[in-house]
Amino acid sequence: MKFRRQHGIGPYIVDFYCPEKRLVIEIDGDSHYNLDTQVYDRKRDDFMRSLGLQVMRFTNQDILENLGSVLEVVLQSTQPTK
Q: Where is the DUF559 domain positioned along the sequence (predicted)?
C-alpha cells in the first residue's frame, strides 16, 4: 500500500492517506487530549467518513511503544472481509 503524508482532503490535512484503501491514519499527540480538540477531531472524522473514508487514530505513544501492533491493526483493517 502506498500512503501520502500530510495530504489535503477538503479543508483538512491528514497525517497519512492511502487512496487505494480509502484510509486515513491520524497520529495524535498530547494536544489531542483536551475537550476542544476532541470535538474538532470528531468533526474532522465525521467529514472524512461522509466521503466514504475509513479513519484510524493512534497516539504518539502507540507508535513509539507498539509500532508492530499498530501496523498489524492497519494491515488487518485493509484486508477484504470474507
A: 1-77
What size, in residues, is the chain?
82
- Grid cell, residue 16, equals 497519512
Q: What is the pLDDT of residue 32?
A: 64
Q: Which residues contact 6 (CB under 8 A, 6 or more apart)?
A: 13, 14, 15
Nearest to 57 by CA among 75, 79, 78, 32: 32
**pLDDT on residue 81:** 65
Mean pLDDT for 63-77 is 94
In degrees, rounded to 5, the angle at the alpha carbon of residue 12 between the alpha carbons of residues 71 and 79 is 30
SS3 (DSSP) at 20: coil
In a domain, 47, yes or no: yes
Residues of the domain holding 12: 4-69
Mean pLDDT value of segment 53-60: 95
